[in-house]
Amino acid sequence: MSNYIISCGGTGGHLSPGIALAEGLAERGHSATLLISQKRVDARLIEKYPHLKFVPIPGTPFTCAPAGLVRFLVSQTKGFYVGMRLVQTLRPACIFGFGGFTTAAIILAGKLRGIPVALHEANRVPGRAIRTLSRFANRVYLPPGIDLPGMAQDVIRHAGLPVRREIARLPRDEACRKLGLDPARKVLAIFGGSQGATVLNDWARRELPQLANAGIQLYCVTGLGKGVAEVVNLTAADRAPVAAVFVPFCDQVAVLLSAADLVIGRAGAGSIAELIRCETAAILLPYPHAADDHQRANAAWFEQQGAGLVIDQNKTVELSREVFELLKDDARRQSIRAHLHRLDHSATLKYIIDDLGALTSPRGA
Questions:
Q1: String of b and e for 175-205 (b: at least 16 CB within 10 Å)?
Q2: I want to staple 294 with a disulfide (CB 3.0 to 4.6 A). Which of 28, 125, 228, 263 is the partner?
Q3: Domain containing residue 193
Q4: Are 229 and 246 in contact (CB under 8 A)?
Q5: Residue 365 counted as domain residue
Q6: Helix 294-304 × helix 269-278 angle, to 10°
Q7: pLDDT tens across 303-348, in order?
Q8: Which of these, 236, 201, 237, lies nearest to 219 by C-alpha position?
């Protein structure tokens, strides 16, 4: 049995695959310690996983603003000393980082201790942390078709994003009932990632009367701090009630994506991987301020694969038109599902764990 340290805090897009990797390692008889941030979203997401070991580590995002830069340097220094103590205590076979601001300190601590280091980048544009830390890595896992200039080819592996085992498509009627929705009516889900998206929440509120009139149920995940849980009951054109549900957080992602006939969401790599696994048609609105505009690159690839549509977040009129047209077109959504099924790389987790075994063996290290 080997012990691993997995750095995966800061966003659901980092934490979710970290949980998937930890559970996969546990099934092989290994143990894992997951390093998370002190953000509220991390604390909320880990509530479902009492069988896993989570350790908060200091860290804040990088910024060039003077005050923010000072906070970054101080927190990363604290994180480095926490990381050094963890490495000395746990003596891991490998340190695995999913990027983000919690990764740098533990990777440097591990490298100084001679521990094998692996990094995973799920976005089509590698982030700052991965680009900077890749020089210290024994393995860098990148999306198929993506490379890092200057990296030795024996370091790079092409692999998708590990998806939690609970993310699997359920029968639609069962999923609707779990969410208190009517299986006989269409369901539109708003899912702006682990932290929500204000622009999508605002669109949902504006379009609510039109959606209800068309008999379309709404399930909107607003994001923590962006609203309270509420159910709004409206009346459709046929005089029957139509529900609109608003929740700040959803820890039943597979249920929601299985119930939804269509999702409107952002284009983070984690969200895309979950849409693919649950084969749910989607319209993506990339977050325009994402680092290196990586969500736009993710969304462009997604659309090129026939897996969904991409619309600029400022084109709300176009969004409304596409939503109503796509919800009426069952054949088109079924075609999208076929493309999503083709893209599902369910063996990704096994591939990564097998490769980590080779890396940490006496000959692979």
A1: bbeebebbeebbbbbbbbbbbbbebbbebbb
A2: 125
A3: 172-343
A4: yes
A5: no
A6: 20
A7: 999 999 999 999 999 999 999 999 999 999 999 999 999 999 889 9
A8: 201
